[in-house]
Amino acid sequence: MRVEQQIEYEARSDAEAIQVAKDKLGREAVILSSRHVKLGGFLGLFKRDALWVTAGILVPDQEDFKRESQDRMVAFQHLLEVRRAVNGKEGASQADEPLVVSAFTPSAVATPGKTAAAAYEANAKPQATANSLTKDVDEIKEILSKVLSRLDGESREETKDETRALLDENAKKLLAADVDRDLAATIAGEYKEKGSDKPFAEWLIDLIPVAGTDTSSALGGKKILFAGPTGVGKTTTIAKIASTQSLWENRKVVLMTADTYRIAAVEQLRTYAKILGIPIEIVPEPKDLQSALKKHREADLILLDTAGRSHYDGSRIDELHALYEAFAPDSVHLVMASNVKYRDMLDIIERMGVVPLSSLLFTKLDETSSYGTILNVIRDFNLPLSFFTTGQNVPNDIEVVRSDRFVNLLLRSDSVKKE
Length: 419
Description:
Blueprint: E1 2-11, H1 14-25, E2 30-39, E3 48-59, H2 62-88, E4 100-101, H3 116-123, H4 130-155, H5 160-166, H6 169-176, H7 181-194, H8 200-205, H9 215-219, E5 223-227, H10 234-248, E6 253-257, H11 263-276, E7 280-282, H12 289-295, E8 301-305, H13 314-327, E9 331-337, H14 342-352, E10 359-363, H15 372-381, E11 385-389, E12 398-400, H16 403-411
Parallel strand pairs: 5-8, 5-9, 6-7, 6-8, 9-10, 10-11
Antiparallel strand pairs: 1-3, 2-3, 4-12, 11-12
């Protein structure tokens, strides 16, 4: 790519930087770089903080076209090889079978799920009203307050060794997986009280909510919004889902991205769209969504990628709320990395909880060996699990979450099966 009409200027915020770029260069403008600087002043004093921005228009050159063509050919070959493996798999079910392609199960191949029409009819629901949106957001805040209060109380009580001495064997198993102490004790107590004749691991399966049994039902509708902090792998995950839905289920998939802050993210998604032969829409602002949605009203599935800025960035969180209202999604998947601490996950939920969350999507399962924090979140917030990802390979390294599979990971067992 080469840069044309490059300009440099001062801005007070990221939002202003983008607006200035659009005003001066048009809708194709992108932010090439930005950095915080000190400007003005007198004799080195009284300088003000500012954002120094470089923007321009990216134009592909001949070498880029040639390289892109080669990359597309390699990617197509890989995708078609996987597709042939799917079609040639003996006895493979063509419906209601979960997608399981992951580093944990290398021999597995992806399988088609429900048809587009059936999946959409099964999952379509009325859009949230302003009142219900406020109610859902308030519920998240209320749960967060209770959870943080509980965790603060635990930090002042006995040590981990003393805690272990008070718990039974089942609770200790959960504690060893980094499940919260009180939650581990509660779950083990419920198992005792119910007097189940099932082994603990099998009984635990029923406590794990999942969003669906195949890719289509796990997505939860036609218009899907993906939210989450930076660096968790939202864009790659969206590409994986788009691949399986467009190639194997023959659905009309549209990619949309509001992440105009990172050139790499936009170009990455654009490349996948070209490989898959599906349209992509860049939506710099929430108001641009209406025309994009109208343009693709016949689509079976619309996947919206949002800016993966830090969850501490208040302006980006406000934009998420505006995007939600403009997009009116059927489902919102909160994407989080499985290898972060529980308190960090709570912080993410607090910041991203400005919109109603439908389900949880966890990435980087291959980068951790304990999964108790995931159980903490789904129990505390009563949110189902939709997908796990276990690497960067597209369309591989993603799976629809099964409750028995999660329990196996949690307790480090391979023997628990769902009835």
